Backbone:
């Protein structure tokens, strides 16, 4: 269909154009906003490629939380608030030779990827036949969830470990860094939060539940719940205090712990690690997913908040 | 010759985004810009993967690359958060010594 | 029905790309954030149209999450901007 | 018949988006632009959602579409308020209306 082809060409061109614009934008704030819009367009592209799971992850994490994370750092770099101008890092201009070498290297790597992509046979069956064959044993009916939580569960476990490592590193790096807290956002926002936050929590739970049979699952649900927590932090409904640290640590670790325990627990009696007994596969996957969702939500919120809650920071909050 | 399917269109766009992002990673001056470039680079690679997983309509796409890219997105946001913490820390250290 | 939907989709994309000019030019941060919000709403509309066009109800969830998460960026912007202010 | 009406609503919704974008580009300051786009995108999305809900094969989908619309309407109203308040406090004074 020609109209749809024109749409695809226009969308693909705008994705590339926006990527270039993001890199060329002078103002750092404009760069971040362009990056957020890039994420939205990317999600549309993924919807066009029949990848709703990826589009879901992209809008939740790529366009949503990454944007908030970047804005928060920019606020720090500009000295407390976003509106305060100046303080942007100025750096030495790179000379022509360096830029030439950079372009050459980037071009070579892109050519390599291009050859790999264009050289591979297109539009022919890949691994989907294997996935379809194994679906009855997976315990779920949605192929992507089956791959994530069953067939390639090692990858997913490692991914949860990466998130855990990230929050540990961020807490270490930010140790002792003080910041002015965000102000109250007013009654209109409070009213909005009262309606929106419960709706968002329900949406997160729905995404988790639907993941077994349709696009959705632990990461998307975790990202939505993480966004709820970020809103709570911004509006100061949630105020991290030193007393919360044991709970926070426990929540960060819970997903990884349950995942690893189940993986090892099913491994006896002639089974491999991660080879769930088919009769209980759905229960086990849902158990893992629920815990991983909670962990991811807490971790993403902690990554946004940055520093570990310490007594000094809360003491300053009253000033 | 390659047929002009939506997979080819977005695959080539993904290649371009990957290349642009890589150039940004290597050449960008500020740290924040370099980090965003790295994110673009990852997004471009993801687009290529998802384009490779596409099958013409009656058939459904290969779910394995989809799962890989979702994992990639989550790993990328973790890496971004760590890099941002480092950027904030470096900035504080620099402004402290300047005073 | 579906060629019409494709045309509508293209019009929405064109409108989104027009709004991009405001993101690039500004002049103020508020302008940029506001335009991003409009673009987000356009993206939600496009996702809803795509769900119909491709007959993929799962895209409605994408639209819902996009709507939820676009609000987070905006609130983050306002809260972080006013952090010092007064 | 219902299908034609649905498509017409959707086309009208797209026109509202175009109008909103024109307002965003042409109006002189942040408050005027805010006015243009909250009207336009609210109406535009409402029409697109209405049309999609008419065509929805089952009630669950229609409910989700309704939820999307309600949420965007709430978020847009709140976001508009927050940005306007912020722009009022941080930005240059509001333009005088010339008689």
Residues:
């Amino acid at each position: 269909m020609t109209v749809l082809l024109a749409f695809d060409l226009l969308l693909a061109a705008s994705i590339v154009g926006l990527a270039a614009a993001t890199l060329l934008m002078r103002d750092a704030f404009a760069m971040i906003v362009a990056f957020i819009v890039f994420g939205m367009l990317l999600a549309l592209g993924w919807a066009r490629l029949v990848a709703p799971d990826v589009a879901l992850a992209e809008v939740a994490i790529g366009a949503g939380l990454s944007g908030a994370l970047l804005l928060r750092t920019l606020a720090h770099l500009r000295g407390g608030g976003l509106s305060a101008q100046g303080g942007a890092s100025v750096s030495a201009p790179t000379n022509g030779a360096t830029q030439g070498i950079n372009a050459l290297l980037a071009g070579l790597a892109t050519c390599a990827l291009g050859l790999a992509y264009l050289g591979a046979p297109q539009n022919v069956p890949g691994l989907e036949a294997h996935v379809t064959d194994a679906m009855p044993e997976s315990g779920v009916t949605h192929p992507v969830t089956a791959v994530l939580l069953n067939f390639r569960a090692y990858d997913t476990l490692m991914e949860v470990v990466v998130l855990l490592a990230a929050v540990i590193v961020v807490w270490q790096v930010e140790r002792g860094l003080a910041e002015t807290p965000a102000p109250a956002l007013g009654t209109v926002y409070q009213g909005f939060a009262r309606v929106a936050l419960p709706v968002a929590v329900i949406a997160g739970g729905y995404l988790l539940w639907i993941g077994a049979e349709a696009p959705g699952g632990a990461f998307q649900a975790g990202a939505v719940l993480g966004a709820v927590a970020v809103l709570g932090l911004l509006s100061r409904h949630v105020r991290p205090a030193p007393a919360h640290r044991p709970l926070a640590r426990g929540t960060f670790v819970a997903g990884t712990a349950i995942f690893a325990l189940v993986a090892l627990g099913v491994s006896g009696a002639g089974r491999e690690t991660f080879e769930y007994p088919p009769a209980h596969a759905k229960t086990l996957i849902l158990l893992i997913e629920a815990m991983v969702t909670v962990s991811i939500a807490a971790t993403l919120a902690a990554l946004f908040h940055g520093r570990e809650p310490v007594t000094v920071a809360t003491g300053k909050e009253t000033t | 010759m390659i047929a002009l399917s939506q997979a080819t269109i977005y695959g080539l766009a993904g290649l371009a985004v990957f290349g642009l992002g890589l150039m940004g990673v290597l050449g960008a001056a500020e740290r924040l810009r370099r980090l965003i470039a790295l994110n673009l680079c990852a997004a471009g690679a993801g687009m290529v993967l998802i384009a490779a997983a596409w099958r013409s309509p009656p058939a459904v796409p290969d779910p394995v690359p989809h799962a890989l890219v979702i994992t990639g997105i989550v790993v990328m946001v973790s890496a971004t958060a760590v890099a941002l913490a480092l950027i904030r820390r470096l900035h504080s250290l620099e402004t402290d010594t300047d005073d | 029905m579906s060629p019409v939907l494709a045309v509508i989709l293209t019009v929405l994309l064109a409108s989104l790309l027009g709004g991009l000019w405001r993101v690039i030019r500004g002049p103020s941060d508020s302008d940029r954030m506001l335009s991003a919000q409009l673009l987000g709403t356009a993206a939600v509309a496009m996702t809803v149209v795509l769900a119909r066009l491709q007959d993929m109800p799962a895209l409605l969830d994408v639209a819902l999450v996009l709507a939820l998460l676009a609000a987070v960026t905006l609130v983050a912007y306002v809260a972080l901007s006013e952090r010092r202010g007064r | 018949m219902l299908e034609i009406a649905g498509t017409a609503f959707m086309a009208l919704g797209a026109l509202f988006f175009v109008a909103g974008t024109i307002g965003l580009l042409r109006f002189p300051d942040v408050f005027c632009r805010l006015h243009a786009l909250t009207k336009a995108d609210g109406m535009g999305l409402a029409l697109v959602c209405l049309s999609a809900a008419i065509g929805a094969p089952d009630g669950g989908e229609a409910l989700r579409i309704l939820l999307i619309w309600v949420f965007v309407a709430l978020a847009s109203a709140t976001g508009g308020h927050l940005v306007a308040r912020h722009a009022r406090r941080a930005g240059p004074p509001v333009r005088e209306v010339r008689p």
